[in-house]
Specification:
The structure is a homodimer. Chain A is mostly helical. At the A-B interface, helix 2, helix 3 and helix 7 of A face helix 2, helix 3 and helix 7 of B. The first copy, chain A, binds a DNA duplex through helix 5.
Chain lengths: 117, 117
DNA sequence: AGCGTTAGTATGCAATTGGATACTGGAAAG
DNA sequence: CTTTCCAGTATCCAATTGCATACTAACGCT
């Protein structure tokens, strides 16, 4: 064991954890990996997210440098969201997280264990 | 684009997101990947986590089926935490998350961009 | 004139998450 | 006889996260 808590802070795990742990972060990034999208286009993908919440999440990802916001000065406004270079590099991670999640769900289905009451 | 929000729910991304997004989840799993550990042993690794919080986090991971709790009936008590099979399969994910995070930190260091005030 | 479209902001609230603190109990060490 | 170690539980509080709702503004369509 070579890690200490300080080293964990220095290494990227903690930064990555903060960025990826938002409720919508991974889902948004997953879609943006396919193509840049406009605000309402993203919102249509997630019926459960409100306008204001999506704005916040996108601003957060923008502040982290994962998402790039491209404003076209038009009326009606057009704002395109895409991934930065470092954001695009999340692709293999998201793919393996999805794959793991699928396996996990299978695993859960098979098991007869229930949560302790 | 083949995903809809419903498909996202069906696919494993959402489950995985819930499990991995706890503040301490990834860090705990990272250490348990190396070897099973006792409660206090884990706590010593994280000076910032309190007793009660660690208990909660471990119970959560146990409920999710990621962590296995092995109680040895002794005085003083000895409880060993280890990873389940599906938990162990998170190893490549954690490794790539760490690698990405390191790259991200480098990226941040180099860039002269600051957050918009 | 009024509605829909675009991409927001502002404000307040609810839920969830995580932390602080105090308590348990039994054995061993000093 | 008191303290330490072990692994907790209980309760309450603080911070963060996410949601609901109402508002803006400029243009096109009917």
């Amino acid at each position: 064991m070579n890690y200490t808590n300080e080293i964990l802070e220095e290494c990227g795990l903690t930064s990555a954890q903060k960025i990826l742990s938002g409720k919508w972060s991974m889902r948004i990034i997953l879609f943006l990996l396919e193509k840049p999208m406009r605000f309402n286009e993203i919102q249509r993908l997630f019926p459960d997210i409100t306008h204001a919440t999506l704005t916040k999440q996108l601003r957060l990802l923008e502040d982290y440098g994962i998402v790039v916001r491209n404003v076209h000065s038009q009326i009606p406004p057009k704002v395109e969201y895409s991934l930065s270079d470092i954001g695009k590099k999340l692709k293999p991670i998201l793919n393996s997280v999805m794959a793991w999640g699928d396996e996990y769900k299978e695993y859960q289905k098979d098991s007869t264990t229930f949560k302790h009451s």
